[in-house]
Amino acid sequence: MIAAGCCRMARSGSVTQEQLADTLGITVVHAQRVIAALRQDGLIELRDRQITIPDIARLMEFSEFNPDYLHLPPES
Questions:
Q1: What is the C-alpha separation between 55 and 58, in angstroms, rounded?
Q2: How many Cβ atoms sit within 10 Å of the Cβ of residue 31?
Q3: CA-CA distance, 44 to 52, in Å (whole number)?
Q4: 63: closest CA among 47, 43, 35, 42?
Q5: Residues 4, 53: contact at Cβ < 8 Å?
Q6: Is 32 exposed, middle or buried (0-12, 13-18, 19+ CB in 10 A)?
Q7: Residue 30 CB neighbour total at 10 angstroms
Q8: How far apart are CA 17 and CA 3, in angstroms?
Q9: Which of 54, 61, 68, 59 lies closest to 34 in space, CA to CA?
Q10: What residues contact residue 3 under an 8 Å CB cut-off, 6+ apart?
């Protein structure tokens, strides 16, 4: 799974949809629907059990991501 945060990319170990749903506090069915919707909108790609974010800025805009929320240092 590929995780993204403020233009930094990190690769982590495998995460099942069940684990993802549990972490987010949603049902597995809802997680599946959200993943499907994100794929349909071209915000993520899922291939060989890996999620890729083709356009991080677009996903951040869609999700109304606020880097100040996490108190991240400004990008240099």
A1: 5
A2: 19
A3: 6
A4: 43
A5: yes
A6: middle
A7: 12
A8: 14
A9: 59
A10: 9, 10, 11, 12
Tokens linked to 31 = 């997680």
Spatial neighbors of 23 by CB under 8 A, at least 6 apart, are: 15
Residue 57: count of CB within 10 angstroms of its CB: 10
25's tokens: 């506090």
Q: Which amino acid is at 62?
A: F
Tokens of residue 54, six digits:
């083709």
CA distance 25 to 39: 21
36 sits in which H/E element: helix 28-40
pTM of the model: 0.69
Summarised one tens digit per residue, pLDDT across range 27-75 is: 999 999 999 999 999 999 988 888 899 999 999 999 998 888 877 677 7
Tokens encoding 45: 């790609």
Residue 30 backbone dihedrals phi, psi, to 5 degrees: -65, -40
